[in-house]
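Example (one chain per record):
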Amino acid sequence: MAIVDDAGACALAYLSFKADGFRSMGTAKSAAPDFARCELARMSAMIADLVSHRKIVGV
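Predicted structure:
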């Protein structure tokens, strides 16, 4: 999701992750695919870490 603040700056939000400081909606839209891929990779790493430390059982 793209968000525009009162000053016209744009931010991207996906689940609880956020990237801000984009000067335009176009810039935010261009960055959105990479942002989503990075956040999905981060979540995957977080899950792998939990599984490897046996905090999640049966995965």
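Caption: Residues 2-52 form one domain.
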